[in-house]
Every structure is written in C-alpha cells, then in structure tokens.
C-alpha cells in the first residue's frame, strides 16, 4: 500500500478553538503549513479536537504529530466515519510530552471520509494544546 500525505487543499479542517481567537497567528492552517515557526494553539478547555473532512475516501494508516512540550496531549482519540454515518472510535494514542516530531503512530486501517482527533488530558494546567505539525498518512481511494 502506498503511504502518502492525505491532507490537501480540498480537505475541510475544523478545530475546537484558537488561542484568543487569533486565527492569523494561531489558526488551523498552521497544522499543515510545514513551517517550524508556526503552530495551531488552542484556547483553554478540557478537550480540544481537530476534524478533517476529506474530499474523497481515504484509508488512514499513520499519524505524525509535533506538540510543543508542556502543551501536549497525554491521550489522542481517533474517530472516523464515512459520509452520513456516525463517528466511531478507531484507536487511542499516547504521545510523549515533548517537542520532537512523534512519527508513525500506527493506526488501524479504516476507510473513512471524516477523521476526528480529540486531544484529551492536556499536560498544560489550563488544557491548552499546541501543535506544530500534524501529518495524516495513508492511501487515497
């Protein structure tokens, strides 16, 4: 199976919040821009999330993520579904609280049109999450 980045310009992305509603500096676009100088920074809260609506079905196999140390998630829950269906839990990931790129969280391969990544149990006292890079890899169908 070829493994390729699945997020493209046609992928609709939503996030739970943006720090101080400063979308220009901390918005969702920074999750995928490839710059080490930008990031998505959530506002405070107990559970933050990112949803991706792919333009066509995909089979996700890996997740790459880079948090800011001290603002990471101890638990990432992945949910997915096909168009018109309810989200179902795919897997749980346990990232490290560090700034390094955490590569190749293997994901149970599932065909889906929508992916939701919930960041629960933030290492930040206020529940903020800071993500410099989010890579979703797999196969376009």
UniProtKB/TrEMBL annotation:
SUPFAM superfamilies: Galactose-binding domain-like (SSF49785). The keyword Glycosyltransferase does not apply. Keywords: Nucleus. It is found in: Nucleus. PROSITE patterns: FA58C_3 (PS50022). Pfam families: F5_F8_type_C_2. It comes from the Eukaryota. One of its GO terms (cellular component) is nucleus. Residues 1-66 form the F5/8 type C domain. The keyword RNA-binding does not apply. Gene3D superfamilies: Galactose-binding domain-like. Belongs to the NR2C2AP family. This is Nuclear receptor 2C2-associated protein. It comes from Dasyornis broadbenti (rufous bristle-bird).
